Amino acid sequence: MKAINLAGKLASFDEHWAPRIVGQYNDNDLMVVKVKGEFVWHDHADTDDLFLVLEGEIDIEMLAETVTLRAGEMFVVPKGVEHRPVAREEAHLLIIEPRNTPNTGDPATAVTKETI
Amino acid sequence: MKAINLAGKLASFDEHWAPRIVGQYNDNDLMVVKVKGEFVWHDHADTDDLFLVLEGEIDIEMLAETVTLRAGEMFVVPKGVEHRPVAREEAHLLIIEPRNTPNTGDPATAVTKETI
């Protein structure tokens, strides 16, 4: 058993919007992801969506409002709430979702989450 | 809806080993806690136990081995694994546990987790 060094995990890849699984907590995947630009609008009907910014800054756009997150800030998008993450510059995030949650909210367009 | 600033939440209290609830993710409490010294040996029969070090350094002692965590490092104690967190100097953590999990593994000795 060993510590999961988040910066070390993030240093091992460059792709944007391609979450890497770095651990598990109960039935959830613990993931790190690099983001830049606009993701797609989506929601998760069955789960909240947890974002913790490790480096940089992102906006979580929702229909009614936008929440800006900086390093050291966390936000949980409640289940069913449509949202779009946007990062003007590259940002690094820790995200938590139940195992097998499609990152786009739709299995047809979701990326496969590699474990690193 | 607003960002949860972890350092800001941590600055609002001084007690050690007294987790504060700062948000919810599905049926889990998201908590920040300041720790210093030795906690009690305990396990959680029904849940993994997630630790992310935000500042400082802690040891997660287990019967077979000890894992040291520094800022930016995460560790999940598997359910049922006996462990004791130890911090030589004050450290600040993000922890995640299912709602109503006793922090000592035993409702009789657990602290009440205040929401801030």
From TrEMBL, chains A, B:
Biased composition (Polar residues): 100-116
Membrane-crossing segments per the record: none
Region of interest: Disordered: 97-116
Annotated Cupin type-2 domain residues: 30-95
Coiled-coil annotated spans: none
Protein name: Cupin domain-containing protein
Native source organism of the sequence: Algicella marina
